[in-house]
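The methods section describes the discrete structure representation at length, but only in general terms. Since the whole study asks how a given chain folds, the encoding of that fold should be made plain. An entry of this sort, consisting of the sequence and the corresponding backbone structure tokens, reads as follows:

. . .
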Amino acid sequence: MSAPTLTAQLKGLVLPPRPDPARSRRIAEGRLLVSAVCVLAVFGAIATRVVMLAGEDNARLNAYQTGGPAVDRGAVLDRNGRLLATNLPITVLHADPAHIMDPRAAATALAPMLPRLDTADLLRLLTKKTRYVELDRKLTPDRHAAILRLGIPGIHFRKSVIRAYPSGDLAAHVLGHVDVDNNGIAGIEKALDAQLSAGKDVTLSIDAGVQAIVTRALRAQIDEYEAAAGAALMLEIGTGEIVSMVSLPDYNPNHIALADDEARFNRASLGIYELGSTFKILNTAIALETGTTTVDRRYSVAKPLRVPGKSITDYKTYDWPLSVPEIMVLSSNIGSAKMAAEFGGDTQRTYLERLGMSHRLALEIPEKSTPMMPAQWKAAEIATVSYGHGIAVSL
């Protein structure tokens, strides 16, 4: 290889020819433009994903931000238009644990303002693997403002409503109550839930004033006789409408969580009882209706009445024959049993069924009992049913 050729190659390797300045500038500008486009594309993709995620988060949370049902639950009124159940606006405090940056600090800050939850409770809630936890359903305005001032990310508020009972425990067993989502779960609230949920008001036959009077009277009797409980009904004679239904002990539906099973039990409609001597009214009516006796007829009650497996006696001994009115006034078991034996078990059962004694009450509320009737109607059952034993019915 000749020297000139070798020299030429070395020059090409060691010291390249000087490039054209204009061409270099065009190449640099092109590369810069391509880089800028790539960077913008990457940031655009990131921004799009962020927006999509935010949209998904908002979609998840929208259900909790709506502030309750679209239609306010209907009110419940007494027969005179007095408000017995209505709705009140509330502020619900809730959190999105995914956005709580420091759960322990947030729990410590919130605990003094939420008396129902301590720091440990809050920490447990704020670290849940969920997007929504409820912290307080009845946030007062001052606590609302104080929590707002904390400025904790992930802590939110929403407007909602709660069911309120202005008269407290008055007619609690009739009204019933709702769950946290305002769905009726007892009493009229449950029985007419569809109507109330549609925003329609309900007017009851109950008279709130009479209800209060009957409640006081029944409570006084319970106290006087040291009874464990009591129930009372007052009906409109002409229509059969229930003007008052009282069961004691009762409860305040505004604080249903504090009510035990004993207080929630409606003794007026769900309890069943042997009505005892009050049944003699029905027994006498059946005897007169069927013509097996007359008002002037007299029955000997001086000695116990013996039936298979049973001896019927009276509280007192009456040495003279009792008339039908006297059997009722003096409450003679023997006289009632003798009248029942005359019209017989089939007639007795038929009349009791026609009077509704064998089936549940036709009430709107769901808390209704099923009466207990004798399994067989032999002489002993006919006799005892005549004075209200061996059969249990609701009031």
Q: What stands out?
A: The first helix runs from residue 3 to 14. Residues 74 and 200 are 5 Å apart (CA to CA). Residues 1-18, 36-43, 45-67 have pLDDT under 50 and may be disordered. DSSP finds 14 helices and 13 strands in the chain.
